Fold this sequence. Notes:
Rossmann fold; D-amino Acid Aminotransferase, Chain A, domain 1; Dna Ligase, domain 1; 3 domains; four-stranded antiparallel β-sheet; six-stranded antiparallel β-sheet; alpha+beta; single chain
Amino acid sequence: xxxxxxxARQLLADHGILVPRAKVTDSAxxxxxxxxxxxxxxxxxxxxxxxxxxxxxGVRLADDPAAAERTARRILGMDIKGHTVRTVMLAEPVDxxxxxxxxxxxxxxxxxxxxxxxAEGGTDIEEVAASRPEAVxxxxxxxxxxxxxxxxxxxxxxxxxxxxxxDPLVRLWQVLxxxxxxxxxxxxxxxTREGQILALDGKVTLDDNARFRQARRGSDDxxxxxxxxxxxxxxxxxxxxxxxxxxxxxxxAGLVMATLDVVAGCGARPANxxxxxxxxxxxxxxxxxxxxxxxxxxxxxxxxxxGGITACDAVADGILRAVDRVRPAKPLxxxxxxxxAVRGRALLDERAHPLVQQIPTxxxxxxxxxxxxxxx
Length: 376
């Protein structure tokens, strides 16, 4: 789960990393009062879970409370890479002497964490890494050892960071460990003209598998930008909304990803990623179908299931019960294969629901779903 910037900054502050004063609001009128309380001159920052806010005009300096109100009004409602800005953060500006980049990220392939740091923060670190890879230090971190003061000094030296960053590097590691994060990033970490080390921006991705240990993750404030994603998450579904017209429901992340590719190869665009996981009961299928067809952009739905632990006859029963419960107005193309597929197909044939079409192959099913979507 990705956090908003203001949530990430709060975690950093909770662990002793200095951040400028800031407040969040969804009201342009309230922005004026907040700016006044912060000293008048503020930075107004769109709160969306994506990068590139500055280039999109979502980060602006306001010289006084009236300008803060005007700027907040301009930013609220903006679309930044498909994310609608619903809140803004107003932060006091800082006199910056130097900008740095620091992060810890899980390196799944190597079974360890990786510290990434550069003396050139405040810009797209990917661009720096591509054009001058020597400017970005990558230091492996043993999870059992963690980041001690000695390890933090090694990271700082490798990246050309000043000695004052050693303590923030140790504290940043504490954020990662204590909050069950997969990524913690500060860009930029700055040294002010007074010599303070401050985190001006933060990005944190929490591990959903550790949700039971982290009460803060149950907060609505940590929800999804998209209301359909929020509704799916509330039902325990793995759903990501995309920008196409073919709804996709499958079991297993790999199968769903392959289905998205096949749909795209048939000349249509997938409208979502939805992984049923290991279960495809009538209740789960109904919840999934209700979420997918709630997207007004969806013109057809492709259900692609390979029966394993959950047999295809149970999946077919779930599809029929789901259609009866949800009563969608959009056609469903179903492809069943694997455990008990013959019985599952027979159940669908016996019912002969007018909205449900069966295609035996994934390519054929994707092609038919694409045809239905593009001719609707």
